[in-house]
Sequence to fold (217 residues):
Amino acid sequence: MVTTKAPEDAYTAEPFVPGPGVGLTALRKAAAGCRGCPLHRDATQTVFGEGKTSARLMLVGEQPGDQEDRQGKPFVGPAGKLLDRALEEAGLDPADAYITNAVKHFKFTRTEPRKRRIHKAPSLREMTACGPWLAAELALVEPELIVVLGATAGKALLGSSFRVTEVRGTVLERDIHGRPERLVPTVHPSAVLRSDDREQAYQGLLADLEVAARALG
Fold:
């Protein structure tokens, strides 16, 4: 018997997402079994969001990295440590934020079987497939403000035409998954770590987060 592969535009997490009214624990448990796109095949585990459902601030990044994939928590690697530092300097308590990613599985390449896993950006179709999880998190947390960390998160929330360099550090008002939201885009902290002038890049991230802190009041 020959089986056909589903086209990429048919990928969606929708069948795996519980209906409205469930809590964060139930969402996280359901996400652990998500098979809505092929990324689950190579990833160690689903990495769902972390934080309080009462959080006023939601931080949305791209996807889990190597350490996040191994530990099952978002932003626990070097980029996460840098982000925590910048949040605190901007007057935002990381412990009071809800943090997640647009894509819940680690996408990577590896040139040889035992070599280090190299991050690979998710496709727009993979981001779209994972969108129902982010929509469920937004509906549950109902944040007052979303900080958009990098281009992938921006495209997932604001569409494929999003360019972080054009709107970073500004307060946007958009309808996201049926809800009016306020968003402040900025670079992903991993971009700061890769920058040739890391201090200047860090100060730019900090300035954007200070905009977010003022917007929250």
Observations:
- Confidence is low (pLDDT under 50) at residues 1-7.
- Residues 22-216 form a domain with the Uracil-DNA Glycosylase, subunit E fold (CATH 3.40.470.10).
- The radius of gyration is 17 Å.
